[in-house]
C-alpha cells in the first residue's frame, strides 16, 4: 500500500529499505530492492520522478526537438520548411512533463509494491529517517538493512551582486517557463547553458551567453568550437572569457553588468553555472557526516565515513559526484539495489571491477549526449583526461563531412569524430562525435570502451554504407591495420 497522507503521523514504521528521494535514481533503487523481496519505502518532498521527468532531461529535450527537426529538414534537398509555433512547442513540453503531475509515477510505485511517504526526510539516527510532512506532522521510518540517499543536486547560484535578488532563472525555470522571453542572458557555458541557449533561440528569444571559459570546456576542444560556431550562425551572442559582475532587476527588465565593462538589458537571466549536492538539510551530522557536502562512496555505493564504509548507508546518483547524469544514476541504482538485496539475504557480493554490484563504468565509460545542434556525443576519456591519467594514447580524428553517409544525410554537413586508443593495450578508451544526429553513434563506442574490444577485432565490425557510422572505418584506417594486433 502506498502512503501519501498523514494518517500514520507520529508513528514509527519499519521497512527493510528506506530510500530518501524519489527521482529516477531513487525509483530504481527501490525497484531493485522490491524485486529482491525487500519491503521498501521512498520519501519525497516534491514530485515522484524528480528533476529528470519535470525540469531537466525530458522537458529540455522536448523544447529542443522541434528546432532540431526544423534545421534537419532545411538541410534536406527539396523540403519546404516553415517557422516554429512556439506555443505548440511549449504545449508539447507540458504534455511530456504530464503538466507537472506525478500521478502516473505514483501509480507505478503502487503497482510495484513500493510505499511512498510525502514530506522532507532527514537522518535522525542510525538506520532512522524522520519525515516532516507539509502540514508539519512527522513520522519515523526505520530501516532493517539500508537507507539509500538519492536526493540529487540543485543549481548553484554564484555570489554575484544582485543575482539572487533579481529572481534569476535556474534550470528549473529554464525548462518550465510558460512564455518565451524576448531577451535572455545565459550565465554559464556548460551543457545546460548550451542546450537552453539553443532551445530558446530556436523559439525566437534573443539570447546572449556569458561564459568564463570556452563552451563545453570538459569536452574535446573541437566540440565547444563547433557548437559555438553554430550558435553564432543562428544569431546567439556568445561571449567567452567574461562573467556577470552585477545584476539588477527593474520595472522594465534586468540590467546585467558584464566583467568586460559592457551592459546588457534582458527580460530574464538564466544561471547555468554548476550544481551543488542535495545534502544541506539531510541530517548528515547526526551520523557523523558533513551537512551540505558531496558524499564519498565505496565501489558498492556505501557512504564512506573517515574512509570506512557505513554498512547501512548508501549515496546513489548526483550527490556522490561520480557521474551526474540520469542514466548513470540509474546504473548506480541498479548496482546499489542489487547489493543491498545481496547483503540483506546473505548472498555473495560481486564487488570486483565490472561486477554486478559496482558502478565501474562511472570511472571509465560514462556516455553523454549534449543535445545542441550539432549534437555532441562522447564516452570515456578526453585527450586531456587521458594525458592527465598518464596513458600513452593515440588520437585520431575524422572529418564527418567527407562521408558518403553525411553527404546524402544533410546538405552542408559539418562535424568531426575522434577516437583515443590506449597504445599499451590496443583498446579504445575514449570517443567523441560532433555533428547532426551523431547521438545514435554513441552506444557502439560505449560498447567498445566497456568491452575493451581490441582494435584489431574492430576491423571486422563492418559499418553499413552509406551511413554516418562509416566514420568508424575511417578512424580505424587512420590508426592502421597493425595497431596492437599482437598485443594482449
From TrEMBL:
The keyword Nucleotide-binding applies. One of its GO terms (molecular function) is dihydrolipoyl dehydrogenase (NADH) activity. Disulfide bonds join 52-57. Pfam families: Pyr_redox_2, Pyr_redox_dim. Residues 15-332 form the FAD/NAD(P)-binding domain. Its cofactor is FAD. The keyword Flavoprotein applies. FAD binds at residues 61, 121, 151-153, 318, 324-327. It comes from the Bacteria. This is Dihydrolipoamide dehydrogenase. The lineage of its organism: Bacteria, Bacillati, Actinomycetota, Actinomycetes, Propionibacteriales.
Amino acid at each position: 500500500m502506498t502512503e501519501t497522507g498523514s494518517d500514520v503521523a507520529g508513528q514509527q514504521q519499519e521497512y527493510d529499505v528506506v530510500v530518501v528521494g524519489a527521482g529516477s535514481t531513487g525509483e530504481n533503487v527501490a525497484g531493485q530492492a522490491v524485486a529482491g523481496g525487500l519491503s521498501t519505502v521512498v520519501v519525497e518532498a516534491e514530485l515522484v520522478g524528480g528533476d529528470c521527468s519535470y525540469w531537466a532531461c525530458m522537458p529540455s529535450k522536448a523544447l529542443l526537438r522541434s528546432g532540431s527537426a526544423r534545421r534537419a529538414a532545411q538541410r534536406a534537398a527539396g523540403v519546404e520548411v516553415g517557422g516554429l509555433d512556439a506555443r505548440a512547442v511549449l504545449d508539447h513540453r507540458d504534455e511530456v512533463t504530464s503538466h507537472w503531475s506525478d500521478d502516473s509515477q505514483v501509480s507505478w510505485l503502487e503497482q510495484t509494491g513500493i510505499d511512498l511517504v510525502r514530506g522532507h526526510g532527514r537522518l535522525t539516527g542510525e538506520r532512522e529517517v524522520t519525515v516532516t510532512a507539509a502540514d508539519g506532522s512527522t513520522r519515523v521510518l526505520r530501516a532493517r538493512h539500508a537507507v539509500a540517499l538519492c536526493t540529487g543536486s540543485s543549481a548553484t547560484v554564484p555570489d554575484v551582486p544582485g543575482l539572487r535578488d533579481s529572481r534569476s532563472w535556474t534550470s528549473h525555470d529554464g525548462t518550465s517557463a510558460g512564455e518565451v522571453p524576448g531577451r535572455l542572458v545565459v550565465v554559464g557555458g556548460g551543457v545546460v547553458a548550451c542546450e537552453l541557449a539553443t532551445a530558446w533561440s530556436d523559439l525566437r528569444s534573443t539570447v546572449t551567453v556569458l561564459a568564463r571559459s570556452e563552451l563545453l570546456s570538459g569536452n574535446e576542444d573541437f566540440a565547444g568550437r563547433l557548437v559555438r560556431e553554430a550558435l553564432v550562425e543562428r544569431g546567439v551572442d556568445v561571449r567567452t572569457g567574461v562573467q556577470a559582475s552585477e545584476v539588477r532587476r527593474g520595472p522594465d527588465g534586468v540590467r546585467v553588468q558584464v566583467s568586460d565593462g559592457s551592459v546588457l538589458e534582458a527580460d530574464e537571466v538564466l544561471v547555468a553555472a554548476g550544481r551543488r549536492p542535495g545534502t544541506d538539510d539531510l541530517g548528515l551530522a547526526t551520523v557523523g557526516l558533513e551537512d551540505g557536502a558531496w558524499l564519498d562512496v565505496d565501489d558498492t555505493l556505501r557512504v564512506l565515513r573517515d574512509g570506512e564504509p557505513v554498512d547501512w548507508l548508501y549515496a546513489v546518483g548526483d550527490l556522490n559526484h561520480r557521474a551526474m547524469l540520469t542514466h548513470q544514476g540509474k546504473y548506480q541504482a541498479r548496482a546499489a539495489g542489487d547489493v543491498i538485496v545481496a547483503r540483506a539475504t546473505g548472498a555473495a557480493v560481486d564487488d570486483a571491477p565490472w561486477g554486478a554490484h559496482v558502478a565501474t563504468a562511472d570511472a571509465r565509460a560514462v556516455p553523454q549526449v549534449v543535445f545542441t545542434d550539432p549534437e555532441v556525443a562522447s564516452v570515456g576519456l578526453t585527450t586531456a583526461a587521458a594525458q592527465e591519467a598518464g596513458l600513452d594514447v593515440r588520437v585520431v580524428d575524422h572529418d564527418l563531412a567527407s562521408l558518403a553517409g553525411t553527404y546524402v544525410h544533410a546538405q552542408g554537413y559539418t562535424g568531426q569524430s575522434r577516437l583515443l586508443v590506449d597504445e599499451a593495450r590496443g583498446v579504445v578508451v575514449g570517443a567523441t562525435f560532433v555533428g547532426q544526429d551523431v547521438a545514435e553513434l554513441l552506444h557502439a563506442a560505449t560498447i567498445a570502451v566497456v568491452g575493451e574490444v581490441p582494435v584489431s577485432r574492430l576491423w571486422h565490425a563492418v559499418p553499413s554504407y552509406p551511413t554516418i557510422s562509416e566514420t568508424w572505418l575511417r578512424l580505424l584506417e587512420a590508426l592502421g591495420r597493425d595497431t596492437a594486433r599482437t598485443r594482449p
